[in-house]
Design goal:
alpha+beta; 9 strands; 31% helix
């Protein structure tokens, strides 16, 4: 069985995002995609969210977007939002179950992943699942890359790369 929610794709390298923000916009763009999927009739833009996030101190220069700051931004737009860590013994399985449940209810999980062959971490929206893994949108891809949306990561690779941190965005 697989479920893929209708989540619009957006790239952090879109020309409408200020160039200075593009290399560090994965978190805010992932939040934007999640909000676009869960809100009805919104004129929200990634640029609006960047400005709001900076005003609300949700960004740490040189580090990235605070997960709790992204939750606060999401709640300010009227959705249910929370964050959770799954770092204990047996928590990987619990995390997979929670992510799957949120997606089943029409929500989006924004997760923190390691980047292969780099010391960076990266936020992506998980938009679907199957018995063998998750579907996600890649915010760091070029806006013209037709493979940037509905990418698949196996549970085995997800277990290796997931930092056991997740934000959950759901309709109210």
């Amino acid at each position: 069985m697989s479920v893929i929610n209708n989540v619009p794709y957006f790239s952090q390298h879109d020309p409408n995002i200020p160039e200075a923000w593009r290399p560090r916009a994965c978190g805010i763009v992932s939040l934007y995609m999640a909000l676009s999927a869960t809100l009805k009739n919104t004129d929200l833009t990634p640029r609006n969210l960047i400005d709001e996030g900076v005003r609300e101190d949700a960004y740490i220069p040189g580090v990235g977007w605070k997960h709790e700051g992204l939750v606060v931004l999401a709640k300010a737009h009227g959705v249910r939002a929370s964050r959770k860590e799954f770092k204990g013994e047996g928590d990987f399985e619990e995390g997979v179950t929670v992510i799957t449940d949120v997606i089943r209810r029409g929500g989006v999980a924004v997760v923190s992943l390691t980047v292969p062959d780099a010391s960076d971490t990266h936020l992506v929206p998980i938009i679907g699942y199957s018995d063998t893994g998750f579907y996600y949108h890649e915010p760091a891809a070029d806006p013209r890359d037709e493979t940037a949306h509905n990418r698949f990561i196996s549970l085995n690779d997800f277990e290796k790369r997931w930092r056991r941190l997740a934000l959950f965005i759901e309709p109210s």
